[in-house]
Design a protein that fits this description.
The chain has about 110 residues and is of the alpha/beta class. The protein has five helices and five strands; from the N terminus they run αββαβαβαβα. The protein is globular and about 35 Å long.
């Protein structure tokens, strides 16, 4: 699944679109940034409610390519600016983390559960 499909297939609102439209190989759902640093994979999408620039910094450190912010969280301009500088795609949805994880797992891994 390519990053652009987060919007075109799933309807997530693209907030920051200056990114390379690469294939996503995994996903990680967490609101604890130290957990993301320890466990998330490169070329993944991060599913979270943490809508601040530190989330982007952690994503960049790990090699995460896209962030989906759930529960229609408001996104500050400084988060968008840092994501643009790092080339990390930002999306927003009104769905919760459980719902988004359930949608993306089969799309990325080609199977359910």
């Amino acid at each position: 699944m390519r990053i652009s499909e987060l919007s075109s297939v799933f309807g997530f609102e693209c907030i920051q679109d200056s990114y390379e439209d690469v294939e996503l190989h995994d996903g990680y759902t967490s609101d604890l940034l130290s957990d993301v640093m320890a466990k998330a994979a490169q070329d993944a999408v991060l599913i979270t409610i943490q809508a601040h620039k530190n989330t982007v910094a952690v994503a960049s450190l790990v090699g995460i390519r896209a962030i989906v912010l759930c529960n229609a969280r408001p996104i500050l301009d400084d988060m968008i600016e840092v994501a643009k500088a790092e080339g990390i795609a930002l999306f927003r949805t009104d769905r919760n983390q459980f719902q988004v994880s359930g949608l993306l797992y089969p799309a990325i891994h080609g199977k359910a559960g």
